[in-house]
Design goal:
single chain, 392 residues, mainly alpha, globular
């Protein structure tokens, strides 16, 4: 509750609870200090340690826990894997939570929400919308404002990502009304505001979007929250700047946001930011820059298994002049992103330097470079330079 209310002593209180050494299963794992510590790690974007803690608690729950313990742990693991970009695993956790909730007569709203969230990254937007609708109905019937807001959030995001700006804005207006009734001072616990800003902007409500964003940015201690929370607000500011006719500032903010998500280890959010940057570049007729941004997004969506997002990105690339590249018409069938990387490497850039210039992670650059080598049948940077000399 201290964290909900923004009391700065929340971490100290949790440490005191952990120091008591009460076994996690003593009063129900979902009520334990150990589980709360894992949830705080999720809020702070410390996702790998959060996942380890949750898996340790899951092992205990499978031996000594009750059905609610298992469902809460599976739902938390789903949330973590969604944010880590492990889409297939997220779907598995969500399916378990949904089936177990139904089998044991537990409140269905939270499980429907979790299933909708997993589908929105690893399944289909249509199924995510359907499941969110089930969650909305169940939560309304039970008077559960907490999960009603969350299911509405998923529905609003789906509408935003599928081009229904007006519908998304209306959905987020309801989320705002629900959240306005509860004094939650920590925006990292439910990250709806940045998405609402983007939805309002897409729906043409820039004044309302600006007021909401300014309020979120002014939250006391916002810079000390999870880095993903901050990066999402920076992205929202970039989207709003683009709508206000300030594309240079917008691209700069979106580049900053992408770097923030990359440092936080949030690949799906990074990729979504590349999509936004590509839209800004296309709007000002910089087709090559738009293609590069969308290919960077496609690369991340491909490695994470984000099926609906791959489809969105492919459709954007198809609409660019010349359609999608990579059909063998270029050197060795290299895509423009691969050609750009190869050019940087040939000019002496290290993997780290190339990653910075391409707004990618070093790991992604290493994978791309391996594919370049394989396509061109070369084994070194010197051979790469020789293979591409006529094309450069």
């Amino acid at each position: 509750m201290e964290r909900v209310l923004g009391v700065p002593d929340a971490a100290r209180t949790l440490d005191e609870a952990l120091a008591l050494g009460v076994p996690a299963q003593e009063y129900g794992i979902r009520n334990s200090a150990q589980y709360l510590a894992a949830r705080h790690a999720v809020f702070d974007d410390r996702l790998p340690p959060a996942r380890r803690q949750l898996l340790e608690l899951l092992a205990i729950a499978e031996r000594e826990g009750d059905p609610e313990d298992l469902v809460d742990l599976w739902r938390s693991l789903c949330e973590v894997d969604v944010r880590l970009g492990s889409c297939a695993r997220a779907l598995e956790w969500a399916d378990r939570a949904l089936a177990h909730s139904a089998a044991h007569g537990l409140s269905p709203g939270p499980a429907w929400y979790t299933a909708a969230l997993a589908q929105s990254v690893g399944g289909s937007f249509a199924e995510a919308s359907r499941l969110a609708g089930r969650g909305i109905q169940a939560s309304r019937e039970e008077g559960d404002a907490l999960y009603l807001a969350r299911s509405l959030w998923v529905r609003g995001c789906v509408r935003l990502h599928t081009g229904d700006g007006a519908g998304a804005a209306a959905t987020f207006a309801e989320v705002a009304r629900l959240e306005g009734d509860r004094p939650v001072a920590d925006p990292s616990m439910f990250r709806w505001r940045s998405d609402a800003v983007e939805a309002l902007t897409a729906g043409g409500h820039t004044d309302r979007a600006g007021l909401l964003l300014a309020g979120a940015e002014a939250t006391p201690g916002i810079r000390g929250r999870g880095p993903g929370t901050v990066a999402a607000l920076v992205r929202a500011r970039g989207v709003l700047l683009a709508r206000e006719g300030r594309p240079d500032e917008a691209v700069a903010r979106l580049g900053e946001a992408a770097a923030g998500f990359r440092c936080a280890g949030l690949p799906l959010e990074e990729a979504r930011t590349h999509l936004a940057r590509g839209r800004v570049e296309r709007a000002r007729r910089r087709q090559a820059a738009a293609r590069t941004a969308w290919e960077e997004a496609a690369e991340l969506y491909g490695t994470t298994g984000a099926r609906p997002w791959r489809e969105v990105t492919a459709a954007l690339l198809d609409r660019l002049p010349g359609g999608r590249p990579g059909d063998g018409s270029r050197a060795g069938g290299l895509t423009p992103s691969e050609l750009r990387l190869a050019g940087l490497i040939c000019r002496g850039a290290s993997n780290q330097e190339a990653a910075q210039q391409l707004f990618l992670s070093v790991k992604t650059v290493e994978g791309m470079l391996s594919r370049v080598y394989r396509k061109l049948d070369v084994r070194s940077r010197t051979q790469l330079g020789a293979a591409l000399a006529p094309d450069r």
